[in-house]
Each structure stands twice: as structure tokens, then as C-alpha cells.
Amino acid sequence: MAYPQLTDKAGALATALAIRTRKLSVAEAVDAAITRAGRLDAEICALAVPDFERACETARAMDNAPRRLDQPLFGVPMTIKESFDVAGLPTTWGHPQFKDKVAPTDALLVRRLKAAGAIIIGKTNVPVDLTDWQSFNPVYGRTRNPHDTARSPGGSSGGSAAAVASGMVPCDYGTDIGGSVRVPAHFCGVWGHKTTWGLVPKHGHDHPAMSRREGFLAAADGPLSIAGPLARNAADLAVLVEVGADVPLRRRPKPIRECRLLAITGLPGSPVDASVLGPTEAALETLARAGVRIDRASDLLPDQARHYRSYVKMMNIALSGGAPAPDGARATAADWFALMNAQAACMAEWEALFAEYDFVLAPPAPVLAVPHADQAVFRAGFDIDGAIEPAGSGLVWAGMATFPGLPATVLPIGSGTYLGSELPCGMQVIGPRWRDLDCIAAAEAIGNILHS
Fold this sequence. Notes:
The protein is an alpha/beta fold. The chain has two domains: 12-244, Amidase signature (AS) domain (Amidase signature (AS) enzymes); 256-450, Amidase signature (AS) domain (Amidase signature (AS) enzymes). The protein contains 13 helices and 15 strands. The chain has helices at residues 12-20, 26-44, 52-63, 108-115, 158-166, 182-188, 208-211, 234-244, 274-289, 304-320, 333-354, 395-402, 436-450, and strands spanning 47-50, 77-81, 119-124, 136-137, 141-142, 171-176, 191-194, 226-231, 260-263, 293-295, 359-362, 381-384, 387-390, 408-418, 421-430. Helix 9 (274-289) links the parallel strand 9 and strand 10 (293-295). Helix 5 (158-166) packs parallel to helix 6, helix 10 (304-320) crosses helix 11 and helix 10 packs across helix 12. The radius of gyration is 21 Å and the shape is globular. 53% of the residues are buried.
């Protein structure tokens, strides 16, 4: 099954190999990425904060130093989501009042990427406060989907996905609490990975209103939210996860045809548009013909409607920092402990399911890339087969992996026609906690079958 690709440029590991074997210099790799960004970004607007001069200086210094075999990303130009601190660059989260405030230090993840040899050429665009499936704000404008510039690239890591899909850079790192890595990957036709919660640190990924407070020091990652990579192939995703991870991850290789999979394509109250269901069902049929065992229902699947309600409550509290809701109500400590208990129960239910199944397949979102709108997607709704449905219902597909803290890899599976435009479609492969590399490997094996 073909899916739309916009570039044939090398990925991260392929670029690193070309540099290591001296077929390409670091300066040439960085200059090529900057040239592509200059050519493409006027229309796409993915790159919010360029850092070209320092990137070129770093590249020249690396070319004059010995090649480091212990740096898997040696010389690879990449971008990172605007919400991560990069020393000397502003971190605004889309707020104009912070556009002249620069970060004094790199986020921990940025330090790890640089230590692995990556060169950050800039930061990619986001929606205000990272709370939309679009990526526009009054500081940096609107990012457009490179497949159809009248459409959203997704959010909140929409600039990240657009930069990777268009070929500006081979990879980026975003964050995800409500599908913010997975939905942009799905909308833009690239690979994305939601990591197990707590695997990749987000220190230095702090709202600028907090990080500007005197004496503020982030000591822990927030609930539910994760840092996760976007790339154009599975191998690049895997190395980016390993570079960012707090702990080493084990691989437990198992051929995909020996796996037992559960596919979930419909949930009560969460309809999925035909533009997503069509490619998804075609992919499942192709896998079944190839001998992959796929069940379509199981009593072991946790009650998604019940857990969704707890997920949304926890997410809203986390995103607001515990501030009162629009109706003035504020969550109590008892409310929070009840949500933690609900989350623990959800984790236990998923663990029971994964005692019988290796992975779960599901849509990342109920629609393909949505048209641009002046208001947030979640204040409007989704056109699903001609009916306007509450956009919040689409979060069920994100919350399926987010609430229990599970890893989930999105791979491109094909394309569909949504509101008159042919657009990429993805599928998420959800796995047990801490099995991130196996999740990515399963997605790669599925992709190999679908695109062979």
C-alpha cells in the first residue's frame, strides 16, 4: 500500500553514516538542511526559531575534530519543538510577552541530543500553550501541512512533523499529552513515537510563565505528558528514543507473524471518519493475508469511556497547573488521589490485556488533516462522514495510550480522501510499558508488509 511521501532525503542514521564514512561533511549536511528550510519554509512556516549561524559554527568545529563512533547522531542536523529550552533562544509556547526572553540553559533532552552528535538548527512551531491539533500562534504564525497547505499539520508538535515530512530535517523531538506527537505524524505521513511515561525527561520543558519565576526549578516531569521523536523511518525513531531515555531499554524481538494483535477501530461515542477507516481496514486485511493474527474484539480491553473521563479530568488539571476550571471549581487533593487510583486501575487492566496480546492497533485520530480554522479544533468539532461531532471525542484515541502511560508508535499506512483532499493516514501500534523499542520494531514490521 503506497502512502504519500514528499522527500527522498536521507534519514538521521543514513546521514550519520554518510558523515562517518566521509561521503559527506558535517558542514555540507547542515548547509543542505538550512538550504532546504530556506526554500520550503516560506510556505510551510514550520521553523519558528532558526539557529543557523550557531549550527554552521558547530558543524565546522565537528569537521575539524575526530569522528566520534560513540555518537550515533554525529553531525545530523535536526530541529526540536519550540517548547523545549535551547540556550540563547526564546521559549514562548506561543505567547508574545515571552518572545524576547531567552533560555539560559539547554533542556536535558537537548543536552542528550547534542551529546549524541546532533546539531539543532532551530525550533519548530506550536499552538498557544500546546493545546490544539493545529499549530499557530501570534508570535510565529501558522504552520501548514506540506501535503496540503490549506490543512493543519496537527498539533501541538505540528511544526515538528511538517519539518520532517517536507524534508527540511530528518528528525525532530516533540511532546504528547493529547496526541501531540501521534496526530501530527498521522496528519503529515511520518513516523512518530509516544514514549512510555517517564522514559524521556522533560526537564527544561516548562511553561515560560513558570520558568521565569525567581527560584523556579523544574524537578519532575508533569503527569501524562511525554517527550517523543518524529522521523521518516523506524530505525531513526529507535535511536532517538535510546538517546533520550533515562534508562536502557531491552529488545525482545518477536516476528510479527508470531504476534497476537488486537485491532480496535470503533468505540462507542467516538466515531471514525471513512477516510481513516478505509486505509485502516485495508491495512488490516493486508496484514491478515500475510498471516498476521489479528483479533477484532476482546473482553480484556479496558473500558475506554470510563477511563477517558478520568484521563480528561487529569489532563485538564495538569495543563492548568491545578487552576480553577471555567466554572470556578478547583480540584481537591481527594480528587487527584481518586484520579491516580483510576490510572493505576487502568494500568493493571492493560497489563492483563498484554498478557494475552502483544500489541494493540488503533487509529491515532478519527479524521485526517483538518482544514485551518481561526479557533482551536477543540472549540469547534470534526466533520465525520458529514456530521459535526464534538472534537473532544477524538481524544479517546489519544487517551487510550496516554492515561495508562503506554508506548505507541504511529506509522504511515496509506492515504484517504477527507473533505475533498487526498491526505496521509497513520496507525498507532500500542504496546506494554517500557517495551518502546519492541513497539517501534512491530510498527516497522507492519510497515514492511504494507509497503512491500
